[in-house]
Amino acid sequence: MDSKQTTTAVAPFEGRLSLNKQFDLGEPATAGTINGLDPDNHPNFIESNTQAVTLEELSNNLIPTWADNSLTISHTNFIKTVRAAAEQVFGSLTPVEIRTSHPIQGRRPEAIHKKQNELTDSDRTLYYQRMAFVSHVIGLSREVNGQVVNLTIGGVRNYADDQLYRTATPQKFKVFVGWQVRVCSNMMLSCSGNSGVIQCLTEADVFQKTMELFTTFNPERENILTQLGDLQSTRMTEQQFCNIIGRMRLYQALPTAEQHQLPPLLIGDQAVNEATRGYFNNPNFCKREGEDGISCWNFLQLLTESVKSSYIDKFAERNQNAVDMTIGLQNALNGTDEEGYSWFLS
Which of 116, 170, 191, 312 gives the lowest tally of CB atoms within 10 Å of its CB? Predict the structure, then answer.
């Protein structure tokens, strides 16, 4: 399945969303507050070159402006808006987990003539070009194939997509909702739980598009969970796993015309190599002694674990692609493939 892409500005939200309201963002993370996990040992939902920041730290960062000096939607207000929509649809959420990358450092105008070693903290400015966050829905946990999974909402923002050198235009965001494996924080995003790129002028636009995604996903969430759980019933032999890995490597070198005849694969060589190593050494989903191969469920976890090394702005679509790929391969293994995934087994 291709990621859904929304490339037009949304209609104005009927009514006013006030971000002056103090939305409940949860207490600061302390031992045992992340759905029963010690945050010091809690796996990150994304790795790559990211760093963790608190909402308070993010709130103190500079808010970039357009060329006409109008403010962009801040990362903080984006998080608040998505969480406000999620709380209306799903209920209470755990404290927000935020990962950032690509810090943009500068200085205030009054410090422009100071030397670098003369700058004080009050002279410096900072904002993060890329940001991703997640929160778990409290009380919506299930057990799938021996693993606890949590319903999780989140969003992605990359200021580089907005071309701030121009006057104000609709800004680009991504919002998602899906199931996350507790033991490893691997997200499992389906097409119906990934907004793709949404373009919004205001926080109210973000709220409207987020509500559309969440309300559409909500009735389907158990069906999606059943589909994910069914992956355990289909196994691939080690030979089949090797064929799939080899074909995934080959896919990257195919002429563009041939790639377009096959299902899309957004997972690059680095992630494929990581999944291959995980086949032998992943503590939760590797091949077990005495078994020939692994289940499609384990294969999915190896892929979603590997795409956690993606840059923030590529994380959601690659994660969804891992789910689409695994479900397609399951169909191919069961002889019901109609989308061309059998090519990866040949």
Answer: 116
